[in-house]
Specification:
mainly alpha, 903 residues, 5-stranded parallel β-sheet, 3-stranded mixed β-sheet
């Protein structure tokens, strides 16, 4: 493995030098990401292994047998276990255990990097699962702030979209091609022990510059005494020459004894890398009895000792042995190996690898799948789909077909194949002898997601007719949710109350929580927020992560923070959002984490904590967010950048938002503001129109809609929007809705006094930017009406608020409007906010930078500043981008130049 003095590779001096430079960077604390690409046998793995470093090396590899086991190469590399990575339980519904495990992997890597430089290699990326590739890509984005050399080696085929995308991320790429003729001759001569003659050179040329073929060919010639070396010159003296790489590999294998060959054939079943204990189980032998054969295979160069495992010299060697067996024999042997491993108590992933490698099934597979099905569905849903699909229609499945179909439906649902999940659920219901609530739950979820809750209601009413106790309570919860999906809030409320009564009678805490949640959601939709809050609190008092309602508990906490914000209890809302964000992070529930993070970003936007909002909406990548959540976050960031005069950054965020026909509040406001700043007032108003329909009015859009409508002369729209604001206030009388009505009415009537009153209400609601907007409009109206003193007073208050927010663009726009009336702003405003360079760093980024200079890791910085790992990581990423540097070392260098000295 990596370490010790570097040895020279023939014909690869340039590639080795480039790799050595990256290792030198690592020793200085600068990370990097490298992809090594080339055909099989071209020397990718050998190149990586020849680099010398004192840093710890974590090495994992993709495996054809394990492609459907998420993150297995990283499990192997980090020397952890699937049980530790995924947790002992299957996970609550709605949580993505694979995504959560991926987050845990990243956290493990960061912790290892906190101890010093680290090399992480994933070989054979072309065989790695999608989750592993996604983690590799995310880590490649983090190498600028970690002492991490991330290496991936892969072949050009099979073609995979995620690997193509990986190549386009800007990581360093080393492409290994065929060795040039001079290098071929040199390598051949080194192995043969003399300068090759013309016949040998011609023979070597047939290897196509492939180092593995050259090595196997030359060593086969030496073993077969086909070469004579005299006076440093080698000449071919026999025509018994392997005519292909496979033939050369077969020649190497042919030199071992028959007993060793049998052991190697069995080892080939287990993959390129294998544990000796597993080989003993498969062969029903003692490890001691296998040692002579394994020693012979190692001496012959067929196997390589990797410390904890043995490995075939190359994947092609393992393939040659594996494919010697007839397909039918291979399949049967894999099935037999799976059973031996299962009976020996081997990890599920090892059993699954063997089952997937074969095509045969046996009677023991069905009970094994049912026993381990929940864990398999949670940890490796694609593997579960393939294995369950093989047995579900077989004769051994009939007595337990309902259980198999339930597992299969759940697996399909988890991977997003809702139609297939629905088919399995329907089939399961046809063979069920009782009302299987799990199947109804999956079916209702599928039909809800595909807009067919009415169909779900028919099935649920039928099932509930003969159900009692816990089953009835859960079915009633599903029925209430279906009514809510259909917009029938009265019936949803009624059925939720029935579900609550049944659940209370049988002590089903999960159904009690769900029933209360449905009632709370109905209250929220009716703007009865004062009623929704105690329902959410009551549901939270019942729900816990111990009874399978951990995901629901997080959802309840998110909705509670949302209600607190809508009630203008903004400080409590921010605290609640931060608490649920931490809870979701601790639980590894990325779906709820992204939702909580997005809600927090919106709350901070409204509260005027824009620096923190920009950090919070950037903590998670788009690849782990729901598209709507991602769009909302981009909208928040775009709005802040527009207010601060950075239209380029705003456009970048808006360009990242897709178009799916759903009105996203922050995106609509950002697009409208962008067009307004471009001078297109009509376009700015049009950007808001989709959110102004009577059946889907969005209150946050109304004040800007009225203001723009008045400016473009659309009084009819302005009056309609005022009426909508008044209707919303009638449903819920809180300060921000009072302010919105006052603002909309004053804009329509041209009343600056009304706008001042609206500003006071916005201040009471804790909405500084909206307050400044109202003051700006009041200043302009006072000026239009010939009252410069009042105009200047409103201007001063608006500018003070904009300055506190850093909203330079708004300040400049207002000042320009007022200059038209000869009115200058009173107080001097600090210079324009920098967007790049040292002066652009926020106070939080400056604090993090000071600790980076002191040599603290992200984890240590988080502990000192009471910030999460993700928050610190995002701060460091922002500092790198603003300073235009590549690593923490560069940050330190720039800080020292600025006088920030390490303590």
């Amino acid at each position: 493995m990596l370490g010790g003095p570097a040895r020279r590779l023939v014909g690869r001096v340039r590639e080795q030098t480039g790799f050595a430079d990256r290792v030198s960077d690592l020793a200085r604390g600068r990370g990097g990401a490298v992809l090594v690409e080339g055909d099989p046998g071209i020397g990718k793995t050998t190149l990586v292994k020849t680099i010398s470093t004192d840093a710890p090396v974590c090495w994992g590899a993709g495996d054809e047998l394990g492609r459907v086991l998420p993150l297995q190469p990283l499990v192997d590399a980090l020397r952890t276990s699937r049980a530790e990575l995924f947790g002992a339980q299957g996970g609550a519904a709605g949580s993505d255990l694979v995504a959560a495990a991926a987050e845990h992997v990243i956290e493990l890597v960061e912790k290892r990097c906190a101890d010093g430089p680290l090399v992480l290699v994933i070989d054979d990326l072309q065989w790695a699962d999608g989750a592993t590739v996604a983690v590799w890509r995310r880590l490649s984005d983090m190498v600028a702030q970690l002492p991490l050399l991330l290496v991936g080696a892969m072949r050009p085929v099979p073609h995979r979209d995620d690997l193509v995308a990986l190549r386009r991320t800007g990581v360093d790429r080393i492409r290994l091609g065929a060795l040039p003729a001079r290098a071929v001759a040199e390598l051949f001569g080194l192995i043969l022990g003399g300068v090759p003659d013309d016949r040998l050179r011609k023979l070597a040329a047939g290897a196509g510059g492939n180092p593995l073929y050259l090595v196997e060919l030359s060593e086969a010639l030496v073993r077969g005494n086909c070469v004579e070396v005299i006076d440093g010159k080698a000449r071919l003296i026999s025509d018994r020459v392997p005519d292909s790489l496979n033939a050369a590999i077969a020649d190497r294998i042919g030199f071992v004894s028959a007993d060793t060959r049998s052991v190697l054939t069995a080892a080939a079943l287990l993959g390129v890398d294998f544990e000796v204990s597993d080989l003993a189980v498969v062969l029903r032998s003692r490890v001691a009895d296998l040692v002579p054969a394994l020693q012979e295979a190692t001496h012959a160069g067929v196997l390589v000792d990797g410390g904890s495992v043995l490995s075939f010299r190359h994947g092609l060697v393992r393939t040659a042995l594996h494919e010697e067996l007839p397909q039918a024999a291979r399949s049967a042997w894999h099935l037999e190996a799976a059973r031996e491993l299962a009976e020996a108590g081997a990890g599920n992933e090892r059993v699954v690898r063997q089952l997937l490698a074969g095509t045969e099934v046996a009677d023991w597979v069905v009970p094994w799948l049912i026993e381990h099905g929940e864990s398999l569905v949670s940890h490796a849903p694609h593997a579960a789909i393939e294995l369950l699909g093989r047995v579900v229609d077989g004769p051994d499945a009939q007595p337990r077909r309902e259980e198999l179909l339930s597992l299969l439906a759940d697996a399909y649902f988890r991977v997003g194949e809702h139609e297939r999940a629905e088919e399995c659920a329907v089939s399961g219901l046809h063979v069920a002898t009782e009302a299987p609530t799990d199947l109804y739950w999956t079916l209702a979820q599928c039909r809800s997601l595909t807009g067919r809750s009415a169909e779900a209601l028919t099935d649920l009413h039928k099932a509930a007719a003969g159900a009692t106790g816990r089953d009835l309570a859960r079915l009633l919860v599903l029925t209430a949710r279906a009514h809510w999906d259909l917009g029938d809030f009265d019936e949803a409320e009624t059925v939720a109350r029935q579900a609550f009564g049944e659940a209370t009678a049988c002590g089903d805490r999960g159904s009690i929580s769900w029933a209360l949640h449905v009632r709370a959601i109905v209250a929220m939709m009716r703007s009865e927020l004062h009623s929704a809050l105690p329902l959410l609190d009551e549901a939270l008092a019942v729900a816990s992560s111990d009874d399978g309602t951990g995901d629901l508990r997080l959802l309840l906490q998110i909705n509670r923070a949302l209600v607190l914000g809508d009630l203008d209890r903004r400080t409590e809302a921010v605290e609640a959002a931060r608490a649920v964000r931490q809870a979701a992070d601790d639980a590894g529930n990325l779906v709820r984490l992204a939702q909580a993070q997005s809600l927090l970003g919106q709350l901070l936007l409204h509260a005027g904590d824009w620096d923190d909002a920009l950090v919070d909406v950037d903590l998670l990548g788009d690849d782990v967010k729901n598209p709507i959540v991602s769009a909302c976050d981009h909208g928040v960031a775009a709005l802040i950048h527009l207010h601060r005069g950075d239209a380029t950054a705003a456009r970048r965020h808006l360009d990242s938002v897709g178009t799916n026909g759903i009105v996203i509040i922050s995106v609509a406001l950002a697009r409208s503001l962008f067009l307004e700043q471009e001078g297109d007032l009509a376009g700015a108003l049009d950007a808001l129109r989709p959110g102004l329909t009577d059946d889907a009015v969005i209150e946050d859009l109304l004040p800007d809609a009225v203001r723009l409508a008045v400016q473009v002369g659309d009084r009819e729209l302005a009056e309609h929007a005022v009426g909508q604001a008044e209707a919303l206030l009638a449903k819920l009388d809180v300060p921000h809705r009072q302010a919105a009505v006052l603002q909309c009415r004053a804009l329509l009537d041209g009343s600056p006094e009304g706008l001042l009153e609206a500003a006071d209400r916005y201040q009471e609601a804790g909405l500084p930017e909206r307050m400044a907007r109202a003051l700006s409009s009041a200043a302009v109206l006072f000026a239009d009406q010939g009252d410069p003193a009042s105009a200047r007073a409103a201007l001063t208050r608006a500018v003070e608020t904009y300055t506190a927010l850093g909203a330079e663009s708004d300040t400049l726009a207002l000042a320009a409007r007022m200059r038209e009336h000869g009115i200058r702003r009173g107080p001097q405003v600090k210079h324009r906010r920098a967007h790049h360079g040292w002066d652009s760093l926020t106070p939080a980024e400056q604090r993090v930078t000071e600790l980076v200079v002191q040599g603290l890791s992200n984890q240590q910085i988080g502990e000192q500043l009471f910030l999460s790992r993700r928050t610190v990581s995002t701060h460091v990423s922002h500092v790198l981008a603003k300073l235009g540097v590549r690593s923490r070392t560069d940050i330190t260098r720039e800080a020292v130049r600025r006088g920030v000295m390490p303590s």
